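It is worth pausing here to work through a concrete case rather than discussing structure prediction in the abstract. The textbook approach is simple: state the sequence, then state the predicted structure, then interpret. We follow exactly that order.
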Amino acid sequence: MTDFDLRRVDENIYEIPQDGEMNAPARVYASEDLLDEIRQDKTLEQVRNVATMPGIVNHSIVLPDGHQGYGFPIGGVAAFDAEDGIISPGGIGYDINCGVRLLQTSLDYDDIRGKEETLVNALYGAVPCGLGKGGYLEIDKDDLRGILEGGIEWMVENGHARDEDLRRCEENGRLPGDPSKVPSEALDRGVNQVGSLGSGNHFLEVQRVADVFDKDASEAYGLHENGVVVMIHSGSRGLGHQTCTEYLRRFEKTYPDRTDELVDRELVHAPIADEIAQDYRDAMYASANFAWANRQAMTQAVRHTLDRVFGGVETSLVYDVCHNIAKKETHTVDGEERELLVHRKGATRAFPAGRDEVPDVYANIGQPVLIPGSMGAGSYVLKGGERSLERSFGSTAHGAGRLMSRTQAKQDFWGGDVQDELRDEDVYVKAESGATIAEEAPGVYKDIDEVIRVSDELGIGEKVARTRPIANIKG
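Step two, the predicted structure:
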């Protein structure tokens, strides 16, 4: 744990001042309690290292759920000029467009009671979980290329999504990806994984709306107390991981001198104008399209399963938002509008009302922001904060943030015990193994309530509703 010159700027705002190596200050959004936890790993070192990258705009940022990642901290945000700046795979992550979507259903909590075990078993049987394990949607390589290019548009055209699903996704579920730039091994890994949950912290969770904080926003999002919703957290699976891995190697081989000079080799990057950078961007966007299609296929599985178990269930998409991505956006910098390539790594876009990117149905409210907590603590729906644009390039946290490594979690927790304890709290969990449950035990995460409190007080993501888990499936 390195000691840094970390200065308090304001309530819940700290900063590492710019020094000789840094091209901008490094800013930390956290309470004192969260900061104590952040200090336990390399998060501060990493956010400071990101500030040494060429052309960084305003600040290197870490959000309230920040913890150590690959190169960039998880919960990290950094922006660079969209034409003359850089792109860095470490600022996006291996799981390209890992994200969250929320489905609102016509069920109430009373409809679920007594059927939780039936429901969790039905969902576990419908949605492939774990490493590999196939996908809900059977496709071939031609279909895969269509998905990589079209994202949710392809899913709508082929009967796997509704028009409203497309309109309620960040970027309408499609970025200008190029399937030809995706490595062949990544294609091989992705062809059988459309509609699969994966492993690690990914989950599909049936929840009830426990608390409403903002009535107008909740009504706009279709949420009411004791209403049943479904949250899906997954990404681009093996395809995205392989794409990131391949391009990291290519960047290192293309820029050996530049890589050797970095304060951290994991911050390898390329000028966005260079061909290899544009190839990576196009492959990353294609992988993002795959992730949207993946979550959409699981949505179809949920719709069919709920209808089979309960009959006549109406299910609509509230929103789908990614938290591992770099995208071109317009932001005001020093009083002038600039096109920036905003890297979000474990960070959720949180645009307020008034931004063109917010769906028409939420134009007067702001973008829904979906922040999952642990299996025991519940999750939150926020709306884009009024101060998010000035403070964090329109970003907030993406979850509770880990306190403990997976290795340590398996030493400290026993999956069966965690499962039993959650069952005593009326939370039904089903996973491929007890080790998976141990790795994701509630005790390995920070206090989601504190993360949300800080986000809300900073005005970067404002509280709308809190949900509590009913049934959870994991890989």
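Step three, interpretation. The chain has a mean pLDDT of 95. The chain has 17 helices and 19 strands.
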